[in-house]
Amino acid sequence: MSSAADSFTLQEATIEDIHAAYAAGRLTARQLVQMYIDRIEAYDRGGPGINSIITVNPAALDEADRLDAAFKASGKVGPLHGIPVLIKDQADLKGTPTTLGSLVFKDYYPDRDSRVVEKLKEAGAIVLAKTTLGELGAGDTHGSLFGSTRNPYDLERTVGGSSGGSGAAVSANFGTVGIGQEGLASIRRPSTWNCIAGMRPTAGLVSRSGVYSGWPQEAGSLGPMARTVRDMAVLLDVMVGYDGDDPITSRGVGHAPPSYTDFLDAEGLRGARIGILRTPMGYNTDPEAEDFKSITGVLDNAVEELRAAGAEVVDPVELARLNELLATRCANPTAGETAFGIYMARSANPPYRTREEAMQSPEFAKLSDQAKVRLRVTADPADHYQYLLARDHLMIHLLKTMAEHRLDAIVHKAVEHQPTLIADGVKPPYVNHKARRT
């Protein structure tokens, strides 16, 4: 590596930092990719053993060479030129397995890129590696293929789930930015617990074709994870867009701005009316636990920062019947099986065509309990109907509260407890949503 590249600081480097170094001739994409690979070897595979990376893309250095040549010839090919991206191992990248963190899928090599990977490549990004996840996208970041992922801030604690590998890897500087997938809190919880920025876009903004748990399921959304809000916005700009293979993206047509970076305005909160929702709503949350109170303190500080930024704060606001309505959550009784078939049908020779075939794998017995449930899950159509009614009522209560208080947004805790211990999450009673009371 050249002395110029030696002067580049990898830790906490942003997209803007990297592009400035490329423009100044201080860094090449090949050098940057190699720096990240070396860091993965030192700190993810070795050293503290964060264990957040399942597969490093074997074509990453070749992609970097191609982009370096293009940059020398005509400049950046797109807004993510030469930016190494980490992606949850739930989305397909041709040439690498999509393992879903599971022994059942360890040898599955898709023959097409997912749509989000296609868009990343079109923008000049380098998909550097596939990250760990809650097995089959379920729960905390443990899996029969890789074990458990450790929190960079406390190696005995979890990174959250299910996009915990992307959260930990971005936090530990194994790539510039990352991508997760969320159905409930699978981006927001690991982003919070790994001290990075992350968001779950509204369903329909980002295509999920070539991603496990896609259409016709509605809840799952791919979203950006980054160390800065600006990098998150730049990544989201690239990810959004209509895709006929994921019909839910028709909902997003006409709703994406020219650029999400246009909203990065230091004065943007001045005069905004923000409601603070303080009702506990996490699974088995314990408002008397010390770590719940610690998180409340963090929220209180954030509320004061909102006021300091010029927002008008309405504290608290309430949503009628919130926890009663949330308790009706229920999966679509047919969408999971249909989505599995659509996902597998993208490959010419899929390892399984149905969930039942996957459960016949000799490796199935080694799956985590949550992953087994994810494959087996069925639901009563009557329960699902009640959930749909409850979802509609909850939306009405939300809009009513916003209308009555003239709110622009509602703020609540992304999580209600601090990161749990890995040891508590891998054995009964599988505590991964709240800390034990001390």
Automatic annotation (TrEMBL):
<protein>
    <submittedName>
        <fullName>Glutamyl-tRNA(Gln) amidotransferase subunit A 2</fullName>
    </submittedName>
</protein>
<dbReference type="InterPro" id="IPR036928">
    <property type="entry name" value="AS_sf"/>
</dbReference>
<dbReference type="InterPro" id="IPR023631">
    <property type="entry name" value="Amidase_dom"/>
</dbReference>
<dbReference type="Pfam" id="PF01425">
    <property type="entry name" value="Amidase"/>
</dbReference>
<feature type="domain" description="Amidase">
    <location>
        <begin position="32"/>
        <end position="422"/>
    </location>
</feature>
